[in-house]
Amino acid sequence: MTNVDGGGVNGGVADLEPLALQKEQKAWYWYDWANSAYVTTVSTVLFAPYIIAIAKEAAVDNRISLLGLSVAPGSLPSYLVTISTIISAIVLPLMGPIADRTANKKRLLATFAWLGALSGSLIFFATGSNWQIGAVGFFLANILLGASLVVNDSILPLISDEENRDRVSSRGWAWGYLGGGLLLAVNLALVTLHDTFGLTEGMAARTSMLSACIWWAAFTLIPYLKLRDHEPVLPPVEGGKQGILAESFGQLGKTLRELPKYPVALNFLLAYLFFNDGIQTVIASASTYGSEELGFGQSVLIGTILLVQFVAFGGALVFGRLAARFGSKHTILGGLVVWMVIVTAALFLPEKGLVPFLLLGVAIGIVLGGTQALARSYFSLLIPRGKEAEYFSFYHAMDRGTSWFGTLVFGLVYQLTDSYRPAIFALIAFFVLGGALLLRVDTAKGIRDAGNDVPAVI
């Protein structure tokens, strides 16, 4: 068997496998770079205000029809995210077994990415009062993005051993924040200075979102061309030889029945659901908190978004180094403590206090990419070999299927108190619960149960 853990010789011939894996890792980083530009420019910043403006043009008595329901234009982005998230939670587990039984995962990754970028490009044609085409494009792109991330994450255990998993995952996240931040900076300049370029604000926004889709598609070429095929570990499927689709459905059912055999992985998933929901809600609510509670204008909020993006690049790399010394579990727990400090500090931020607000943005950037990157690599250690995509499909599906808990708590606390300060502080419960559950995870046992090698530092 080829040694993939280090250099040396094998039967008198130099082992070049580590060098080949390093090349694959560098190629793999580029997919985080590619898709993050779409996430930041389109999903996070520009799509919601643009589609709301278009929907208002078509509204009658401030209402539009979405799947037969009468909704306010201002609610449209939230409904689109919610519907696509629910469908993703149903569809993604069906994609995992297919990916695990496919040697050419890079082709599957690229197919989802290019179809997603093509779908997102439809937003460019949402003009006048034609919000429907933009809604369909965003909806499809959101689902396809989720499918591509399942495949992408499942490649991580194939191109890195247990000792290097945290480093590789952290660098991928870092590249993602850097790429997303660079394109977002260019696009925000285009939208802000649209008159200088002879564009309307709407045309500048549409062009920016189209550029993110082109970026996503173009940079996906690098992993598509540079990654190698990895022969799948084909588990036996009940019922004899079938087509790959039928076998994949059969394997999904079998895996669901076997999940209780991996209680450590399930315990980590439960912990992840809580602390990741807290992270996502803080990010989603930060601009609302900054504008409505602290009174900052759009320019400050945009600047803070960019600050977080670029700080997160360094934060992800720092967390990778900390994990190498203290282990990923302990580093994640340290990050959750920082998240608790962040939401507590937000409770006391002074109105119009720019410096404290920016310092809070720096703190968020430091722990944002690091905790998410290490959660990905940590979970990969608890996955049985040959079922990487299946388990990562559960990882993403459960994440998406429960991502409304935090926003629900935030909204309810605001409704009861009429203040965003206790609403943002209430999210500390997610970090406390997530951390408490993570403390109970027996890392070494989970790795052994999955049949993986236990790293020197866990």
From TrEMBL:
Principal cellular location given in the protein's record: membrane
Transport keyword on record: yes
Keywords on record: Membrane, Transmembrane, Transmembrane helix, Transport
Example of a GO cellular component annotation carried by this entry: plasma membrane
Pfam families membership: ATG22
Subcellular location(s) per record: Cell membrane
Transmembrane segments: 76-96, 108-127, 133-151, 172-191, 203-225, 264-284, 296-319, 331-349, 355-379, 400-417, 423-441
InterPro entries: Atg22-like (IPR024671), ATG22/LtaA_families (IPR050495), MFS_dom (IPR020846), MFS_trans_sf (IPR036259)
One MF term in the entry's GO annotations: transmembrane transporter activity
Entry membrane topology: Multi-pass membrane protein
Domain Major facilitator superfamily (MFS) profile: 264-458
Domain of life from the UniProt record: Bacteria
PANTHER family: AUTOPHAGY-RELATED PROTEIN 22
The protein, known as: MFS transporter, UMF1 family
Organism: Nocardioides exalbidus
